[in-house]
Q: What sequence folds into this?
């Protein structure tokens, strides 16, 4: 009996150790891959009589990586523009049901490369001039920098703080595409504190907000409809649904308004127990529903007010649809995030900005939530302030796709010249 227990114990590997072993394995495989690749390229170079122009035919000019299908709203405008310009690129996704896989592009190849570690194993040995991604943590966890990638470029999937990722989220990127000067200030502050090389910060605006604004302007004139409140929280133990849960939903149902709850996608795993319990306790009904659509445009467009916490969707809603929010204060804990390094510099930009977009919500207001929402919507002073925030948070409005693709193509050309110069030396 004891022998069997010992065998089981010896066979067990805790998740942290497993992740470390996988990282070591990937590192060894990557090293071997690049060693044999270098030998093969040298052999091909010699067979070609010393001509290196076609030595690496598998190198991609642009690789776009998306770790989840929900970021297709960021990348679709970019892929459309690359296709329009006839620029070759590949779009790699870790979601088997990514909408990108239904596109019929000629110049942009869309491919599912597996989930989780399978995707990172492919990324760690890729060859490309440019890799564009929303995914933080490059060079920190399983995703390692490939020696055959010229430049890693990060693009945000929401406007707001640049210091909201898990620690060191952007440290190993070469360039970051910026939506506003506040992001520049946060990134530069982190670089100075950590003593790391400054990244290339490029002001391009926000691709998905531009696309969302185009869609909003094309909407027909709004008709009379029941007042609708959207609950759109972030995820984690201090998020709105976890912290307020039943008390908030009971108060909303008591208003008589139509209520739509749209949990953060990460809640399905991080907050699964809480979410499952709430969905059982509050099933879909005539004036109450849960929303998990991949595209959030319709649910945002139909809401007259939003209740949220520290979710980045605040800016999508307030800046595109020009409507107010109620937000919970004091629920954000920045211990695991880059923002923890900036605590001495005061509140993050987004927390200083929330009061300009709406009003705080606390539990004392829940019994009077209907009146609170009515006063919120009637507050005309918030309208002018939202315009100010829009200009501050969202630079280059209407130009983001052009500026983004201009940058990608220009950097590809520059890196190609650098590569040719290195080959000739």
A:
């Amino acid at each position: 009996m004891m022998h069997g227990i010992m065998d089981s114990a010896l066979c067990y590997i805790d998740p942290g150790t497993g992740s470390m072993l996988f990282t070591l394995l990937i590192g060894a495989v990557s090293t071997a891959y690049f060693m044999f690749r270098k030998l093969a390229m040298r052999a091909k170079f010699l067979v070609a009589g010393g001509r290196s122009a076609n030595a690496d035919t598998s190198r991609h000019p642009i690789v776009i990586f998306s770790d989840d299908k929900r970021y297709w709203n960021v990348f679709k405008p970019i892929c459309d523009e690359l296709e329009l310009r006839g620029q070759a690129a590949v779009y790699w996704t870790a979601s088997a049901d990514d909408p990108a896989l239904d596109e019929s592009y000629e110049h942009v190849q869309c491919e599912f490369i597996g989930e989780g570690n399978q995707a990172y194993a492919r990324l760690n040995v890729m060859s490309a001039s440019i890799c564009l991604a929303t995914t933080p943590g490059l060079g920190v966890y399983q995703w390692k920098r490939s020696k055959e990638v010229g430049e890693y470029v990060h693009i945000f999937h929401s406007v707001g703080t640049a210091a909201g990722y898990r620690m060191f989220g952007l440290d190993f990127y070469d360039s970051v595409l910026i939506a506003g000067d506040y992001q520049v200030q946060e990134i530069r502050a982190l670089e100075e504190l950590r003593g790391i090389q400054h990244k290339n910060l490029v002001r391009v605006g926000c691709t998905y907000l531009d696309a969302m604004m185009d869609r909003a302007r094309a909407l027909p004139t709004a008709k009379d409809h029941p007042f609708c409140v959207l609950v759109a929280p972030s995820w984690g133990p201090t998020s709105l649904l976890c912290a307020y849960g039943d008390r908030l939903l009971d108060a909303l149902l008591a208003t008589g308004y139509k209520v739509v709850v749209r949990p953060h996608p990460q809640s399905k795993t991080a907050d699964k127990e809480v979410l499952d319990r709430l969905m059982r306790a509050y099933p879909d009904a005539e004036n109450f529903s849960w929303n998990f659509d991949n595209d959030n445009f319709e649910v945002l467009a139909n809401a007259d007010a939003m209740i949220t916490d520290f979710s980045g969707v605040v800016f999508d809603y307030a800046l595109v649809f020009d409507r107010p929010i109620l937000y919970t204060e004091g629920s954000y804990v920045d211990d695991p995030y880059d923002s923890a390094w900036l605590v001495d510099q005061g509140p993050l930009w987004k927390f200083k900005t929330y009061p300009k977009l709406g009003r705080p919500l606390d539990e004392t207001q829940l019994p009077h939530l209907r009146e609170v929402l009515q006063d919120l919507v009637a507050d005309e002073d918030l309208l002018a302030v939202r315009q100010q925030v829009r200009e501050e948070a969202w630079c280059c409005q209407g130009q983001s796709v052009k500026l983004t693709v201009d940058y990608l193509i220009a950097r590809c050309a520059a890196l190609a010249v650098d590569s040719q110069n290195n080959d000739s030396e």
Notes: The domain at 222-393 is CATH 3.40.50.2000 (Rossmann fold). Confidence is low (pLDDT under 50) at residues 1-24, 30-35, 37-57.
